[in-house]
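Note to self: keep these together.
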Amino acid sequence: MNRRKRGAILVVVLVLFINLPILHSTWTAWRVERSGTDHTVELTDHDVLTPEGDRQYWLGFRFPEDVDPDQSLWTARVDKAAYDEAVAEGTVRVRVLDDNPAAYRVEGQVRSNVGLVTTLIADAILLLILLLLWRFGRSSRPLPLRIAAIGDVERCPPDAAVEQVEGTLYLVRGEVVRIEGDEVVLDAGDRDVVVILDGHQNPVGYQQPAQVRGRLVE
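Structure:
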């Protein structure tokens, strides 16, 4: 696997790692809205918290045993109107996925934007890092090596290497990243290698592993 593919896979993994939680919560909320069942459940606890002077209204409740056999205590932050109504009636209206009691939405629930903001900030930082790597990685990458082929370009197992056979003769392996007229460019890992076919054949296609022998062109 060459440098470009490894880098692309790493970027995909990082993007998934950063965005998967918010994507999962969004998907779950959509499923609750689309397929959830409405229940009016008994209020088991309630409290008003004031972290940093911000009044927060919290409700605690349990689902019926047919929804949640474990009878876990679930909580939700709601607005003041929903809180006052739930406390006065001793019940709270909840929409839940019957096969997943952890997926629910309470009437009047207050959603936090912390997860979304954190994800957007992380995405912005990742984008900045990628731009810096692209900018300075390109400038620090060695100039392409140029060789004149002494034989046809051949298919080979995936690899990336520049081996000096003797004198100015080199064996190059890498992925084909560009085909232009009488030239083929291979990604040989730390640097690109421009192969001047000089009448020889190239049966290897774009983004396929190839190898070729050639003499260094000054």
